[in-house]
Amino acid sequence: MDLSVVAERAVRRSVAAALVTDRKTVEYDPYLAGRKVDQVRGLATKPAGETLEWSAIVKVTTGPGIRAARRELRHSDARRR
Q1: For helices 3-11 and 71-80, what crossing angle results, to 10°?
Q2: Are the beta carbons of 14 and 47 closer than 8 angstroms?
């Protein structure tokens, strides 16, 4: 996953770089086993050097026979092409 794409979506501005500063698991009752939801916080640097805070919810799907959950990223991937 490209963190710059995630940060751009969160701050709605172009960013030159991004990093994660904190990641916490969100407790919930998953519909299917192997699902996990995290809240991610980070810092993004704009091309001019300004630093912005950002946060996002990350869904992770793992396990045998389970396809990786990537639908949340399709829109942002298409935007970058």
Answers
A1: 90
A2: yes
Q: What is the pLDDT of residue 80?
A: 39
Residue 81 covered by a domain:
no
Residue 33 domain flag: yes
What domain count does the chain have? 1
- Could you tell me if 20 and 40 are in contact, meaning their C-beta atoms sit under 8 angstroms apart? yes
Q: Produce one character per residue of 31-55: b if its CB has 16 or more CB atoms within 10 Å, e if not.
A: eeeebeeeebebebbbeeeeeeebe
Give the pLDDT of the chain (81 residues) as one tens digit per residue: 688 999 999 999 999 999 999 999 998 887 777 788 899 999 999 999 999 999 999 888 877 665 655 554 444 433 433
Please provide the distance, in angstroms rounded to a whole number, between the alpha carbons at the two ends of the chain.
15
